[in-house]
Amino acid sequence: MRTEQDYKALLANSTHIDYAVANYYGGIHVSHLNGKYFWAVENYSGFDWFEISEQLFNALIDWERTRPMRADEYDERSTINTPPCATP
Prior knowledge:
By secondary structure, this protein is an alpha+beta fold.
């Protein structure tokens, strides 16, 4: 079971994936903690983090880094937070 400190660390290390992939409350975030990878979709109560494979984590990060920018957004890809063990 993760602690409140773990949840705070997951959110602090998270990367928001393409703003078009979202619901009313927010979008998909990916994160890492202690060598494991997670994703969450923001909802009315915050984030519910679920463990995912490193391969899926890297694919989502790669998509966010290389996707075409939309005219209505600013480029924040330089702030993508990946763990040292993730594929650059």
